[in-house]
Amino acid sequence: MQQQLIDFIQTRHSLSTADQRLITQYFEPVLFPKNRIIEEEGKVPKYLYYIVSGYLRLFHYNEHGDELTTHINCPPGFFSSYFNFVNETKSNENVECITECELLRITKADLEILTSKSMAMKDFSIAVFQQSISYNETRSLELATLSAEQRYRKLMQNYPGILHNVPITYIASFLGMKPESLSRIRKKLAQ
């Protein structure tokens, strides 16, 4: 599994043999079943995950006890409650495997060791966190400016696999709408 991560990194950064050995040493392969919460709200996130296969979501409960999905991710990608992972603070969100997931994980301490030993991994790590910030800013803007149908169309275009692997209730919540509204949009687009 680590080779998939190495290949992914090498699409952006050159890795030496020593860098590759460090990645293999510090990223631990894990397999989780469908519907497993792997990081719980109220706790400091223990790991940053690289998704080899499967779908994950970040969610929290609102004041009415309803689940609100704030992020969905699929391979290849990194996943965690980033702000809380980086700052080692308690998260108000849960990380859940929507499907069975093959993941590579690394602790904050091991990530710091890895990035201190490998300049390529330091540069790559910075790029990943910058990409996360950019994604979150874009997502906030889209939720504020795009219609529900536009948000759904954009998801269909950019991440079609999500539509086939993630329950509609999670997709609707992620897009900032009720499942009934998403069903109406899907019905309209199917005609």
Can you characterise this structure?
The chain is an alpha+beta fold and 191 residues long. The chain has a domain at 2-118: Jelly Rolls. 51% of the residues lie in helices and 22% in strands. The chain contains 9 helices and 8 strands. It has helices at 2-10, 17-26, 82-87, 108-117, 119-145, 148-158, 160-165, 168-174, 179-190; strands spanning 28-32, 37-39, 47-53, 56-61, 67-73, 77-79, 94-97, 101-107. Strands 1-8-3-6 form a 4-stranded antiparallel β-sheet. A hairpin with a 5-residue loop joins β4 (56-61) and β5. The longest helix is centred in the last third of the chain and has 27 residues, at 119-145. It is globular, with a radius of gyration of 17 Å.
Summarize the structure.
The protein has helices at 2-10, 17-26, 82-87, 108-117, 119-145, 148-158, 160-165, 168-174, 179-190, and strands at 28-32, 37-39, 47-53, 56-61, 67-73, 77-79, 94-97, 101-107.
Question: Keywords for this structure?
Answer:
alpha+beta, 4-stranded antiparallel beta sheet, 9 helices
Mean pLDDT: 94
Task: Give the second-level CATH assignment, the architecture of the domain at 2-118.
Answer: Sandwich
N-to-C span:
42 Å
SS-derived structural category? alpha+beta
How can the largest sheet be summarized? 4 strands, antiparallel
Q: Which H/E pattern describes the elements?
A: HHEEEEEEHEEHHHHHH
The CATH topology annotation of the domain at 2-118 reads as: Jelly Rolls
Helix content: 40-55%
Please state the overall shape, judged from the principal axes of the Cα atoms: globular
